[in-house]
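re: that chain from earlier
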Amino acid sequence: MCEGAPAPHSQFTPARGMPSQAEQEVMFAASPDSHAFQHWRDRTGLMLTQARHLISSETKYITTLPRDSTVSAHWQLIVNATAQQLIPPGVVHAWKLIFSCDTPLLHPYLVQRMSESMLAAAGLDPRGTPWKDRKVLLLIGRRTVVYTTALSATGTIMMNASPYLSSCCSEEGKESD
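^ sequence. v structure.
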Protein backbone atom coordinates (compact mmCIF):
# COMPACT_ATOMS: atom_id res chain seq x y z
CA MET A 1 0.00 0.00 0.00
CA CYS A 2 3.04 2.27 0.05
CA GLU A 3 3.68 4.64 -2.82
CA GLY A 4 6.65 6.92 -3.26
CA ALA A 5 9.47 6.91 -0.73
CA PRO A 6 9.51 4.00 1.71
CA ALA A 7 7.98 4.57 5.12
CA PRO A 8 10.19 3.96 8.18
CA HIS A 9 9.58 0.39 9.25
CA SER A 10 11.89 0.26 12.27
CA GLN A 11 9.02 -0.50 14.65
CA PHE A 12 8.06 -3.54 12.57
CA THR A 13 10.98 -5.92 12.84
CA PRO A 14 11.12 -9.50 11.56
CA ALA A 15 10.87 -11.99 14.39
CA ARG A 16 13.61 -14.53 14.95
CA GLY A 17 11.88 -17.80 15.57
CA MET A 18 8.20 -16.90 15.18
CA PRO A 19 6.16 -18.04 18.21
CA SER A 20 3.56 -20.75 17.61
CA GLN A 21 0.71 -18.37 18.56
CA ALA A 22 1.62 -15.89 15.78
CA GLU A 23 -1.28 -14.47 13.80
CA GLN A 24 -1.41 -15.34 10.10
CA GLU A 25 -2.42 -11.89 8.84
CA VAL A 26 -2.70 -8.61 10.73
CA MET A 27 -3.52 -5.09 9.54
CA PHE A 28 -2.41 -2.07 11.51
CA ALA A 29 -5.63 0.01 11.58
CA ALA A 30 -5.18 2.24 14.61
CA SER A 31 -5.37 6.01 14.56
CA PRO A 32 -5.73 8.63 17.28
CA ASP A 33 -9.18 8.40 18.87
CA SER A 34 -10.25 5.66 16.44
CA HIS A 35 -12.65 4.37 19.08
CA ALA A 36 -14.88 7.42 18.34
CA PHE A 37 -17.06 7.46 15.23
CA GLN A 38 -15.83 10.61 13.45
CA HIS A 39 -12.15 9.77 13.87
CA TRP A 40 -12.79 6.14 12.95
CA ARG A 41 -14.63 7.14 9.79
CA ASP A 42 -12.05 9.73 8.74
CA ARG A 43 -9.01 7.55 9.32
CA THR A 44 -9.59 3.88 10.08
CA GLY A 45 -12.52 3.50 7.67
CA LEU A 46 -10.46 4.95 4.85
CA MET A 47 -7.46 2.74 5.71
CA LEU A 48 -9.72 -0.32 5.53
CA THR A 49 -11.19 0.83 2.23
CA GLN A 50 -7.75 1.48 0.78
CA ALA A 51 -6.53 -1.98 1.83
CA ARG A 52 -9.68 -3.90 0.90
CA HIS A 53 -7.95 -5.80 -1.90
CA LEU A 54 -5.22 -6.98 0.51
CA ILE A 55 -7.31 -8.26 3.42
CA SER A 56 -9.27 -11.47 3.85
CA SER A 57 -12.05 -12.66 6.12
CA GLU A 58 -9.37 -14.04 8.46
CA THR A 59 -7.42 -10.76 8.82
CA LYS A 60 -7.08 -9.43 12.34
CA TYR A 61 -6.76 -5.71 13.05
CA ILE A 62 -4.55 -3.82 15.50
CA THR A 63 -6.79 -0.96 16.59
CA THR A 64 -8.28 0.89 19.52
CA LEU A 65 -11.33 -1.11 20.55
CA PRO A 66 -14.69 0.56 19.77
CA ARG A 67 -16.46 2.28 22.66
CA ASP A 68 -19.89 2.44 21.06
CA SER A 69 -22.13 0.39 18.81
CA THR A 70 -21.81 2.78 15.86
CA VAL A 71 -18.10 2.07 15.41
CA SER A 72 -18.69 -1.68 15.92
CA ALA A 73 -21.43 -1.64 13.27
CA HIS A 74 -19.14 0.12 10.80
CA TRP A 75 -16.40 -2.46 11.36
CA GLN A 76 -18.94 -5.09 10.33
CA LEU A 77 -20.23 -3.12 7.35
CA ILE A 78 -16.82 -2.35 5.83
CA VAL A 79 -14.81 -5.53 6.46
CA ASN A 80 -17.25 -7.78 8.36
CA ALA A 81 -14.89 -7.81 11.34
CA THR A 82 -15.99 -9.34 14.62
CA ALA A 83 -14.81 -8.32 18.08
CA GLN A 84 -12.48 -11.36 18.05
CA GLN A 85 -10.63 -9.91 15.05
CA LEU A 86 -9.82 -6.61 16.80
CA ILE A 87 -6.53 -6.62 18.70
CA PRO A 88 -5.64 -3.75 21.05
CA PRO A 89 -2.26 -2.08 20.36
CA GLY A 90 0.64 -3.98 21.86
CA VAL A 91 3.19 -6.60 20.88
CA VAL A 92 1.76 -8.73 18.09
CA HIS A 93 3.52 -11.50 16.20
CA ALA A 94 2.26 -11.98 12.66
CA TRP A 95 3.39 -13.74 9.52
CA LYS A 96 1.92 -11.01 7.33
CA LEU A 97 1.53 -7.33 8.31
CA ILE A 98 -0.61 -4.94 6.27
CA PHE A 99 -0.36 -1.24 6.98
CA SER A 100 -0.97 2.03 5.21
CA CYS A 101 2.02 4.30 5.06
CA ASP A 102 -0.16 7.09 3.67
CA THR A 103 -3.96 7.26 3.63
CA PRO A 104 -5.35 10.63 2.53
CA LEU A 105 -7.84 12.27 4.85
CA LEU A 106 -11.30 12.43 3.25
CA HIS A 107 -10.19 11.46 -0.24
CA PRO A 108 -13.29 11.55 -2.52
CA TYR A 109 -12.62 8.15 -4.12
CA LEU A 110 -12.04 6.36 -0.81
CA VAL A 111 -15.08 7.99 0.81
CA GLN A 112 -17.23 6.94 -2.16
CA ARG A 113 -15.87 3.37 -2.07
CA MET A 114 -16.43 3.19 1.70
CA SER A 115 -20.04 4.36 1.28
CA GLU A 116 -20.69 1.87 -1.52
CA SER A 117 -19.22 -1.00 0.53
CA MET A 118 -21.34 -0.16 3.56
CA LEU A 119 -24.54 0.18 1.52
CA ALA A 120 -23.91 -3.15 -0.24
CA ALA A 121 -23.14 -4.86 3.10
CA ALA A 122 -26.41 -3.49 4.50
CA GLY A 123 -28.33 -4.94 1.54
CA LEU A 124 -28.99 -1.57 -0.11
CA ASP A 125 -28.27 -0.45 -3.66
CA PRO A 126 -24.74 1.04 -3.53
CA ARG A 127 -25.65 3.48 -6.28
CA GLY A 128 -27.99 5.21 -3.82
CA THR A 129 -31.13 7.09 -4.84
CA PRO A 130 -31.30 7.91 -8.57
CA TRP A 131 -30.80 11.62 -9.29
CA LYS A 132 -34.30 12.03 -10.73
CA ASP A 133 -35.84 10.72 -7.48
CA ARG A 134 -33.82 12.94 -5.14
CA LYS A 135 -35.35 15.97 -3.50
CA VAL A 136 -33.72 19.29 -4.32
CA LEU A 137 -33.00 21.74 -1.57
CA LEU A 138 -32.08 25.24 -2.64
CA LEU A 139 -30.99 27.75 -0.03
CA ILE A 140 -31.24 31.39 -1.03
CA GLY A 141 -30.34 34.37 1.10
CA ARG A 142 -31.23 38.02 0.49
CA ARG A 143 -28.27 39.62 2.23
CA THR A 144 -25.57 41.43 0.34
CA VAL A 145 -22.18 39.95 0.88
CA VAL A 146 -19.57 42.36 2.18
CA TYR A 147 -16.11 40.87 2.17
CA THR A 148 -13.87 42.78 4.56
CA THR A 149 -12.06 39.64 5.68
CA ALA A 150 -12.45 36.01 4.77
CA LEU A 151 -14.41 35.40 7.98
CA SER A 152 -16.91 38.25 7.78
CA ALA A 153 -19.06 37.20 4.82
CA THR A 154 -22.72 37.59 5.74
CA GLY A 155 -24.30 35.71 2.87
CA THR A 156 -23.72 34.20 -0.55
CA ILE A 157 -24.11 35.81 -3.94
CA MET A 158 -25.93 33.50 -6.34
CA MET A 159 -24.90 34.21 -9.92
CA ASN A 160 -27.55 33.67 -12.63
CA ALA A 161 -30.22 33.12 -10.00
CA SER A 162 -33.28 33.79 -12.17
CA PRO A 163 -33.70 30.21 -13.53
CA TYR A 164 -33.63 28.88 -9.99
CA LEU A 165 -35.86 31.56 -8.53
CA SER A 166 -38.53 31.13 -11.21
CA SER A 167 -39.04 27.50 -10.20
CA CYS A 168 -39.41 28.52 -6.54
CA CYS A 169 -42.06 31.17 -7.08
CA SER A 170 -45.74 30.78 -7.92
CA GLU A 171 -47.35 32.36 -10.98
CA GLU A 172 -48.21 35.51 -9.04
CA GLY A 173 -44.53 36.06 -8.26
CA LYS A 174 -44.91 35.22 -4.60
CA GLU A 175 -42.80 32.69 -2.78
CA SER A 176 -44.24 29.19 -2.87
CA ASP A 177 -44.04 26.57 -0.15
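The first helix runs from residue 37 to 50.
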